[in-house]
Amino acid sequence: MSSLRNLNNPVTLVTGASSGIGEEIAREAARRGHRLVLTARRTDRIAALAAELGALAAIPGDLSAPGGVAGLVEELSRRDIAVDILVNNAGVGRQGSVATLPAALQTGQIDLNVRALTELTIALLPAMVARGAGGILNVASLAAFQAGPNLAVYFATKAYVLSFSEALHEEAKAAGVNVTALCPGPTRSEFADVAHLHMSTALRSSALVADPAEVARTGLDALERNRAIAVPGLANRIAAFGTRLVPRSVARRIAGRIQK
Fold first, then answer.
1. Over 70: is that where the pLDDT of 3 sits?
2. Catalytic positions, written as ranges
3. Which domains does the chain show, CATH number per domain?
4. Which of 14, 38, 111, 127 could form a disulfide with 87 if both were Cys (CB 3.0 to 4.6 A apart)?
């Protein structure tokens, strides 16, 4: 049985909580009795959400910036907040080829999707291990299962998140800490606009694009059960499994055509 069952009203830190999946994870966690700490770059949004949900704290900040994670950890310590569950949701992508996208846009994805996630995990995991209970939900993507031409850096960062989370799942479970990689497919959020994805109106409104609230429920359910990987939606689970059945050369060509 999940070690999270032993935590009453756990303190849950959600990064990237100002919109989309992060906002819905915060809402779902609040419904489950979690005490929330919210962080994101958009101060007004997380302040409003924190007030609505009765959060312990809203701490604005840019985790991709130098010292961003250290600043957040210092603020948690200053407020004497011990995090029981970490939700590493903050992430960014940008469509375009490696040769044409500005370098800062590409390395910025690595800074947020990989470095910040890893630094925050390293900072908060030891205390969970010492307490013998805790959880980490890392938001990866269906993109983690294959290469993605025209979103090359984003797909690669999500592959890292999946691999890191699977390894951490094995390392931490004996200490009573649950670790899950949540791998959603296309989801209704602001991500497509920020990433400049050329998604058709029909696709945006289709049943293949998930409701972020359902993604949030799937992720928290999986974390409570200590499942290493959670892929919301039958079609996405088939797609994730299907990448094992076709040659990688075929999978990457298909992905490249879709993302042109």
1. no
2. 154
3. 3-258 (3.40.50.720)
4. 14
